[in-house]
């Protein structure tokens, strides 16, 4: 789950199955002391699967999802991106050594944590360019880039075009949903 609408969809599915969680957050359902039986788990899986969601029960997959959620949260908080070292931030968020997180993430996702972070930042740049409320300089500063040139080089490397060219095209289906990055 990556947005408030995702939470609402999951809440509706749980309500239809009469499952009362303590809390639903992005990427996580806290059932507290409630233990679902196999039939309830399968019913929930069937309910959410057509909606593009899946249940994750093994610890490594949960950890990968926590890493992704933490990165998405970081990119969405502009005041944090510029002053936070990714390795320290992730270690503090998921309570594991960064080297372990990095190796696990790379082996499962076939991309490094750093590249995933860059991809998320570039999607945020696209979003901000489409909104057309900030200059490229303001976007670079907000997302923790050392300069507009650094942002532009990274943007071109990931997307194949410059931010100016992207902005001129005005989205045309070139943006991805953050859960597809």
Output the number of helix runs: 10
Spans of at least 5 consecutive residues whose pLDDT stays below 50 are: none
| Average pLDDT | 86
Which CATH class of the largest domain is shown? Mainly Alpha
Compute the separation of the termini in Å.
13 Å
Overall body shape: globular
Rg over CA atoms, rounded to whole Å, is: 18 Å
Order of helices and strands: HEEHHHHHHHHH
Largest sheet: 2 strands, antiparallel
Task: Describe the fold and architecture.
This protein starts with a helix and ends in a 12-residue tail after the last helix. Helix 3 packs across helix 5 and helix 3 packs across helix 6. It is mainly alpha-helical. Strand 1 and strand 2 form a beta hairpin. A two-stranded antiparallel sheet has the order 1-2. The mean pLDDT is 86. Helices cover 62% and strands 3% of the residues.
Comma- or semicolon-separated keywords:
181 residues; mainly alpha; Arc Repressor Mutant, subunit A; 3 domains; two-stranded antiparallel sheet; 10 helices; 2 strands; globular
Secondary-structure blueprint:
Blueprint: H1 4-16, E1 23-25, E2 28-30, H2 38-48, H3 59-76, H4 78-81, H5 86-94, H6 98-109, H7 113-131, H8 136-142, H9 148-159, H10 163-169
Antiparallel strand pairs: 1-2
Brief account:
The protein is mostly helical and 181 residues long.
């Amino acid at each position: 789950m990556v947005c408030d609408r995702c939470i609402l969809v999951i809440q509706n599915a749980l309500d239809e199955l009469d499952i009362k969680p303590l809390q639903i957050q992005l990427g996580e359902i806290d059932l507290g002391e409630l233990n679902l039986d196999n039939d309830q788990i399968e019913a929930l899986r069937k309910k959410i699967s057509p909606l593009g969601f899946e249940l994750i029960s093994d610890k490594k997959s949960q950890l990968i999802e926590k890493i992704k959620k933490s990165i998405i949260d970081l990119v969405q908080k502009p005041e944090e991106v510029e002053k936070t070292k990714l390795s320290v931030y992730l270690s503090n968020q998921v309570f594991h050594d960064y080297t372990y997180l990095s190796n696990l993430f790379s082996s499962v996702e076939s991309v490094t944590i750093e590249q995933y972070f860059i991809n998320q930042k570039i999607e945020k740049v696209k979003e901000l360019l489409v909104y057309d409320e900030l200059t490229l300089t303001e976007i670079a500063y907000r997302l923790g880039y050392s300069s507009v040139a650094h942002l532009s080089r990274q943007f071109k490397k990931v997307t194949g075009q410059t931010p100016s060219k992207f902005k001129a095209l005005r989205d045309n289906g070139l943006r991805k949903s953050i859960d597809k990055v």
